Amino acid sequence: MAGVMGLGERLDAVRAEASASGVTVVVDLHGKPVDLSFTREALAVRPAELAALVRRLADEAAAAAVAQGTSILADVVPPHLLTS
């Protein structure tokens, strides 16, 4: 069946992003940042606040990525195995 991704490919393709104050963080399923961008708005944020913002956004994006991964797994794994 051409064009249909396998489970591993679907999980590898998971990406989630979070944005605020001119900062956008994109992470993969493992929460690893794969993209980080700043607009001019972000230049007005103090460095310590900017670092905290990037960390918070990475955490938010990571939670969304895990939710996506769980949803993908729910298609093939019985629900009681996902909650243990």
Outline the secondary-structure elements:
Blueprint: H1 7-12, E1 15-20, E2 23-28, E3 33-38, H2 47-74, H3 79-82
Antiparallel strand pairs: 1-2, 2-3
What does this structure look like?
The chain is α+β, with helices and mostly antiparallel strands. It has three helices and three strands, in the order H-E-E-E-H-H. It has a three-stranded antiparallel β-sheet. It starts with 6 loop residues before the first helix and ends with a helix.
Helicity range: 40-55%
The gyration radius over C-alpha positions equals 16 Å
Query: What would the average pLDDT be, to the nearest integer?
Result: 91
- The total count of strands amounts to 3
SS element count, helices: 3
Strands in their spatial order, largest beta sheet = 1-2-3
Would you identify the regions where 5 or more consecutive residues have pLDDT less than 50? none
What is the rounded distance between the termini? 33 Å
